[in-house]
Amino acid sequence: LLRMGAESRGMMLAQILSLDRLPLALWTSPLELRDELAQRLAG
């Protein structure tokens, strides 16, 4: 998998949320991204 900076991950998270494909994204994304997304959703 490609290594991404914080900005790229943030953009990806925004796309995931805007596409409303959260379950699929959580299942297919790397653990690191999954954890970050979970933290953002938890606020």
Task: Write the topology of this structure.
Blueprint: H1 6-19, H2 22-28, H3 31-42
Quantity of strands, as a count: 0
> Helix and strand succession?
HHH
Structural class, judged by helices and strands? mainly alpha
Could you tell me the mean pLDDT? 70
Distance between the termini: 27 Å
What's the total helix number?
3
How can the largest sheet be summarized? none
Number of domains in the coordinates?
A: 1
Note the beta-strand portion.
under 5%
Helix coverage percent? over 70%
Shape: globular
Query: Rg from C-alpha positions?
Result: 10 Å
Question: Low-confidence parts lasting 5 or more residues at pLDDT below 50?
Answer: none
Notes on the structure:
- It contains three helices and no strands.
- The protein is mostly helical and 43 residues long.
- The longest helix has 14 residues.
- The relative contact order is 0.15.
- It has one domain.
Concise synopsis of the structure shown:
The protein is mostly helical and 43 residues long. It is 77% helix and 0% strand.
Describe the structure using short key phrases:
43 residues; mainly alpha
